[in-house]
């Protein structure tokens, strides 16, 4: 039996998933980690990334059967290296909202929305700041690109991952050359020893081979994997989420909900306008995608769950995390559709869509609010997707057609609950598959299998439709009218709550 391995370095977990020739998960392992806020920057230690990968791999069975593998990770951010691949500054993650000046200027120069989290915004901000390391830059890449390079010696990323570094030309499946030239023109006055095309990783498309595991790469993995395993192009968590949910064809979409939350909708037609709330990225095959990306999702609800677990401990009980989350999620279903006047803002970090550079988690209620556990936790879960709804409303105004919307990630692990609230938020049916909890690592394993097994001229869409998702168990939930009205009422108050959030960030 052949197996295919996907490794994903997510925001809270590093996960490895192996699938068989029937595309079913056969073994998995994970490692929990967290970003650190150091010197005003959200970052992860790269040494811990390797410890986490190795820890996750220890649970993968029959490693000698692995025919192909791939690396996925959180998109965007900034990893800058010198010519010898020495890290020049600590990893700056997608969570950082410190590139507003650069992002705004590039958006105006390109006529294309450049969010703060994009790699090019971080690079240009470093140039504008006159940071010492800029003159020594030889390579700019992402976390997935870095891990892939260390394992294979190939400095490349998949086109979906590349689309969070710099705008992509979907016709030619490469960085947009006109915009590359514009960037080089605006940095020319700084007399830097490099041009943009010299420092970016090359771009590959799903299905292309992206090198193989080298001896030095195998050593980094503790000798657990044999030398020579072929690699798929490294992809971002957005792209692997699309693959894991079979949402790579025009008119399909998915929502990934974990530490951050984002929706991906594959466009049938271009958007008429530029929106700073909407990232224009691509599928792993280069098709244009409208992405609504929110920095904050479950971090605050996880914090409240931890507090409630501590409370239970006062009475001599210590519920398992899985039971705790299930009970709290299910309890929220007893709450009012509008949460009874309880409002939650979950901003642990800044939020680009609503223009916050920092966050202050808040719980606000009127004196006459129905302050019950059910309403409180329902409001907490509503808050995980409230900002996403603000972005999705823009797509609705653009008459973007969504034939199907699939949910995956931790928010959807408890049956029905997250699915029900997301359907209300988007006023659209939401589907979850039995593999939803496996997330991006599963999607990366599928991309590895596609690279190894695809027939000549077989598209990724056909491969997924005909060979992967034909008999996968799934459930679809249509929006309930009362829930839709309740969520809309909540959102109207949530917009006002953001004024309180602004006051909090200004004064606390």
Quickly describe the structure:
The chain has 508 residues and is α/β, with parallel strands linked by helices.
Structure description:
With 508 residues, the protein is α/β, with parallel strands linked by helices. It folds into 2 domains: 3-245 and 439-468, ATPase, nucleotide binding domain (Nucleotidyltransferase, domain 5, 2-Layer Sandwich); 299-433 and 477-507, 2-Layer Sandwich (Nucleotidyltransferase, domain 5). It has helices at 46-57, 100-110, 119-128, 143-152, 159-162, 177-187, 196-199, 215-220, 237-244, 299-313, 321-332, 373-397, 417-426, 439-453, 460-468, 481-507, and strands spanning 3-9, 13-19, 25-32, 36-38, 41-43, 66-73, 79-81, 139-141, 156-158, 168-169, 174-175, 202-204, 230-231, 235-236, 252-257, 261-266, 279-282, 288-294, 342-345, 362-365, 404-408, 430-433, 474-477. It has a 7-stranded mixed beta sheet with strand order 17-18-16-15-21-22-23, sandwiched between helices. Strand 2 and strand 3 (25-32) form a beta hairpin. The model has no long low-confidence stretch (mean pLDDT 94).
Layout: helices, strands, pairs:
Elements: E1 3-9, E2 13-19, E3 25-32, E4 36-38, E5 41-43, H1 46-57, E6 66-73, E7 79-81, H2 100-110, H3 119-128, E8 139-141, H4 143-152, E9 156-158, H5 159-162, E10 168-169, E11 174-175, H6 177-187, H7 196-199, E12 202-204, H8 215-220, E13 230-231, E14 235-236, H9 237-244, E15 252-257, E16 261-266, E17 279-282, E18 288-294, H10 299-313, H11 321-332, E19 342-345, E20 362-365, H12 373-397, E21 404-408, H13 417-426, E22 430-433, H14 439-453, H15 460-468, E23 474-477, H16 481-507
Helix pairs in contact: 2-3, 9-14, 11-12, 12-13, 12-16, 13-16
